[in-house]
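Hey Z.,

So I finally got round to the zinc ion thing we talked about over coffee. Here's the setup:
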Amino acid sequence: MKLDSVLDIIDRPTAWAWICRTYLPDGVVCPVCGHVITGDRALASFVALERTYCTGHKSAFRPLSAIAPLRGTEWAPEEFVKLLMLHLAEQSASDIAALLGKSAGCVRDMLGRLAVLDHKTTTGDRLLDG
Ligand SMILES: [Zn+2]
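And the result:
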């Protein structure tokens, strides 16, 4: 099976759902104030990847900023999941960059973020279980 044909089946909603399950197992937590988001409209905005209003600090935040490795980056959810899969398949940073249409530096930056977080989480195992 070719890797790029597997990558094609990863769409944004599926990737975002997996990311939320993996990184926010206890629900949506505001990255600014730590408030747990419970409102139906706010949660719907979050799932739709639209700015989400937090009643805790009375302002909105970007959903991607609630996910530690994605905070402050321009990575789309599906690109992030594809990177994880390619990394688990032991592809090099330059090969991953070529497959995703990103720079090798950008890929190395994200792999570095994940290496730091791996001390706290088992992202790879969760990807395989998920
Ligand atoms: Zn907040």
